[in-house]
């Protein structure tokens, strides 16, 4: 804005200078024309006098040039000019022809002083400067008054916006129309505002008691009030543009400005990975404002998603053994199979039935809600030895080297949950350790805490696999047929460790092996 005004001033100044110079040039040209006409008139009078008195000597400044004279002045006349004019700073010289019977007889040259234009030029420029300065002074004065008036008006409006009910913003030294209009506006605002100020203040105080985000915005898209929970989740702002990353939600808020009604709707806020149940309630008595409550239902929907995924995975896992059992049972009903084939089919059915039972048992363990965990003193060393003895056949089958670094420890805990933790981790190590490999089982105490760890020299885990290793039904190997199990073992381990208020860590190196460490 300032650049535009400065540019306009420069343009007007240039135009004024050009106009002044043009006037000076026109005045000088007019004086020169007057001098030229004066000398030409003298020349005509002298020529008439010479016709009557040819032998009279001419006064100073007058000269008769012979016909044969050849200079720039006579050449101009020879080319058709009525006369020739030469100018210097102070002199004007006019050369005009004298005719006899239509032929140039000779030339009359008159030199006289020029009328001085200095005073007229000086006076014109001085007058122009005085006018410019006078107008400039008036313009600056008017601009300053306009600026002060604008600043005062803006200040009044800001005071109205900042505190329309308590500020004394209607005082003015001048009783101008805008101040009068502001007076009227202020009085109107005060009358309207005082009628519902108490309601507004009570509402603003009331929303602070809630632990979920709440904000109030008006029909101009300005957020007028937020509670502490909103500021924690988002930011302290006065503009709905804060929700620009969430286009659907912003559109929903804007639509309520056009069609105000009570409505609830679920939105997913991708940038903060949260689900909010939004409820908008119009407040027509409070300047057409809107109360927005944001209930965080992320946990519910994540639990629902996990539940649905779990049901889908369980259904898939149950389908495989059931399909095998049904298929081989149908084959047993056939009369075309031999006794040996029948035994093989029955063995397969028995194996798939055991797999199905293990899956059901693990699913029950995983979904069991332990509202109360009974604890008693257990000899953890004996518990680990029993598990290792039970696993001897599998260890011998793969010719694994077992190294047990187990201290004699008695600890108060839940027997079933700890047994499940130790058993699953030991069985998991046996499954993923290659033939002739090595397994290290360790049990020790540190700072009154029990530390149990199982180390194998299997293929190891990638970072992505480590992130997902405790997911339900997740298996590291791509082919589920290569390693037996339900895929729920480590999920059960993590659940039991958490319920016992313990902690589990995984350290793995590709090609070196993996160590699971449980701290209770």
UniProtKB/TrEMBL annotation:
InterPro entries membership: BphY/WalK/GraS-like, HATPase_C_sf, HATPase_dom, His_kinase_dom, HisK_dim/P_dom, HisK_dim/P_sf, Sig_transdc_His_kin-like_C
GO cellular component, one term: plasma membrane
Annotated TM spans: 9-27, 118-140
Biological process, per Gene Ontology: cellular response to phosphate starvation
Catalyzed reactions per annotation: ATP + protein L-histidine = ADP + protein N-phospho-L-histidine
Record has Phosphoprotein as a keyword: yes
Chief subcellular location: membrane
Histidine kinase domain: residues covered: 313-520
Keywords: Kinase, Membrane, Phosphoprotein, Transferase, Transmembrane, Transmembrane helix, Two-component regulatory system
Entry-linked Pfam families: HATPase_c, HisKA
Protein's cellular compartments: Membrane
EC annotation from Swiss-Prot or TrEMBL: 2.7.13.3
Keyword Transmembrane helix: yes
UniProt-listed PANTHER family: PHOSPHATE REGULON SENSOR PROTEIN PHOR (PTHR45453:SF1)
Protein name: histidine kinase
């Amino acid at each position: 804005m300032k650049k535009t005004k400065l540019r306009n001033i420069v343009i007007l100044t240039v135009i004024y200078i050009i106009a002044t110079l043009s006037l000076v040039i026109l005045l000088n040209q007019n004086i020169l024309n007057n001098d030229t006409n004066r000398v030409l008139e003298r020349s005509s009078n002298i020529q008439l006098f010479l016709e009557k008195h040819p032998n009279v000597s001419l006064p100073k400044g007058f000269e008769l040039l012979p016909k044969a004279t050849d200079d720039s002045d006579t050449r101009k006349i020879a080319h058709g000019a009525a006369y020739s004019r030469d100018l210097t700073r102070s002199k004007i010289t006019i050369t005009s022809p004298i005719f006899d019977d239509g032929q140039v007889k000779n030339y009359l040259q008159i030199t006289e002083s020029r009328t001085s234009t200095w005073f007229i030029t000086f006076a014109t420029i001085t007058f122009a400067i005085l006018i410019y300065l006078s107008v400039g002074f008036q313009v600056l004065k008017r601009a300053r008054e306009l600026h002060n008036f604008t600043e005062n008006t803006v200040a009044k409006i800001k005071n109205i916006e900042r505190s329309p009910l308590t500020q004394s913003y209607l005082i003015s030294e001048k009783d101008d129309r805008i101040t009068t209009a502001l007076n009227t506006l202020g009085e109107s605002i005060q009358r309207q505002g005082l009628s519902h100020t108490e309601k507004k203040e009570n509402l603003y105080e009331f929303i602070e008691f809630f632990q979920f985000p709440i904000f109030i915005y008006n029909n101009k898209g300005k957020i007028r009030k937020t509670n502490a929970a909103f500021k924690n989740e988002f930011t302290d702002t006065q503009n709905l543009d804060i929700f620009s990353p969430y286009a659907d939600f912003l559109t929903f808020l804007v639509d309520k400005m056009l069609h105000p009604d009570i409505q609830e709707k679920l939105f997913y806020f991708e940038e903060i990975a949260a689900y909010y149940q939004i409820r908008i309630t119009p407040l027509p008595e409070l300047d057409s404002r809107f109360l927005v409550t944001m209930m965080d239902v992320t946990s519910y929907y994540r639990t629902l998603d996990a539940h649905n995924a779990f049901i889908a995975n369980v259904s898939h896992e149950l389908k495989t053994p059931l399909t095998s059992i049904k298929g081989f049972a149908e084959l047993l009903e056939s009369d075309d199979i031999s006794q040996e084939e029948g035994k093989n089919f029955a063995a397969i059915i028995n194996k798939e039935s055991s797999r199905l039972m293990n899956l059901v048992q693990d699913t029950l363990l995983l979904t069991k809600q332990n509202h109360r965990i009974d604890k008693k003193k257990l000899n953890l060393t004996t518990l680990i030895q029993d598990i290792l003895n039970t696993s001897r056949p599998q260890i011998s089958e793969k010719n694994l080297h077992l190294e047990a670094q187990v201290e004699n420890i008695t600890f108060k805990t839940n027997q079933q949950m700890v047994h499940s933790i130790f058993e699953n981790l030991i069985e998991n190590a046996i499954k993923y350790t290659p033939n002739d490999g090595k397994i290290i089982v360790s049990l020790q105490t540190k700072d009154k805490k029990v530390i149990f760890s199982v180390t194998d020299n299997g293929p190891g885990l990638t970072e992505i696999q480590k992130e997902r290793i405790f997911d339900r039904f997740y298996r590291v190997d791509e082919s589920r047929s290569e390693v037996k199990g339900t895929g729920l073992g480590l999920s059960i381990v993590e659940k039991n460790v958490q319920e016992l208020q313990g902690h589990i860590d995984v350290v793995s190196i590709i090609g070196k092996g993996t160590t699971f460490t449980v701290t209770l």
